[in-house]
Amino acid sequence: MAEEVMKKLEEHDTQLEIIARTVVNAQKQLSGVETRVVSVENRLTGVENRLVRVETKLDRVEQRMENFVTKEDHQEVMNALDALIVLAQKKDQELTFVGHQVKRNTEDIAKIKPLVGLEALS
């Protein structure tokens, strides 16, 4: 009888170790996702700063245009806007990708919680 109890306890220990490793792995993945989200947010802040600088440049161009507009001035503005559009599209794609990753990780964590007994804590 005692051997059966010990065997069951060892089985439970093994299962708990597997669950603990799974939780640790999930936490590492979440940490990685959080790091990527922070990185994307930082890059977006940089884009916002660039947009502010471009808006400032546009204001200056508009003031110059009141007096005299050249093809070169117009082309400079259009090139800057084209570059910003490309940057904005790339950032939008990155945010979409990261959003999908976060959603998948959230779903995975939701599946893992009942296995580790965390659903009662939510």
TrEMBL record:
Coiled-coil region list: 9-71
Gene3D superfamilies, sorted: 1.20.5.110
Domain of life: Bacteria
Keywords annotated in UniProt: Coiled coil
Native species: Candidatus Uhrbacteria bacterium RIFCSPHIGHO2_12_FULL_54_23
The protein's name: Uncharacterized protein
This protein's record includes keyword Coiled coil: yes
